Amino acid sequence: MRHINVGAGKLTTDYGSQLDLFVPAETDMKQQKLDQTIDHLRQKFGTTAVVKSSSKIDGGTMIDRAGLVGGHRGGQAYGTSK
Known about the structure:
The protein is an all-alpha fold. The protein has helices at 25-45, 62-65. The chain is extended and about 45 Å long.
């Protein structure tokens, strides 16, 4: 397979969130702000701008997998690195 097309329609802005009875509202709001901040940093500086520290040690895969498409090299030649 060479090309995949994805379409989306009738999208709306985020008007609310799903409440969780076991998580206080303040904690949920703090987590949402943190998630938005991380999303903004990744949009501005790239996917690997914010990673878990375990991804920096031997055996960590997040940084290596960031350039893959569906688990594959996505057009990059084998044996070459970025």
